[in-house]
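It is worth pausing here to work through a concrete case rather than discussing structure prediction in the abstract. The textbook approach is simple: state the sequence, then state the predicted structure, then interpret. We follow exactly that order.
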Amino acid sequence: MRRDHESDDAALPREPIEVEITDVLDLHPFRPSEVADVVRSYLDAAADAGLCNLRIIHGRGTGTQRRTVRTILGRDPRVRSFADAPREAGGWGATCVELESSPPRP
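Step two, the predicted structure:
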C-alpha cells in the first residue's frame, strides 16, 4: 500500500545512463518505454564507431522487447542481417546483428 508521502519512483525522471559503445548492448537496465530509443541511439553510435557485428541482449521474458528490437532492426537500412544469438551467447534472449561496413567517423 502506498502512503501519500511516498514518492512514485516510476513517475520521476531518471538520470541519463551512459553506455559505453561496444559490440554488446544489454537492455536490462532500461525501462521498456526506453528500449526503442536506446536501440536506435546504439545503432547510430555503433555505426559511427565502425562496429559491424553486434549483440543486443533483450532477455527472454514475454518476447515484447525482442519484437521491439527486431522491428527497429528490420527498418534500419544499415542492418545487413539479424538472428538469434548462438546458445552460448544468449540464444533467443539476444539478437546478433550485422551492420553494413562503413569506416568509423573521426
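Step three, interpretation. The two ends are 53 Å apart (CA to CA). The CA atoms of residues 79 and 99 lie 4 Å apart.
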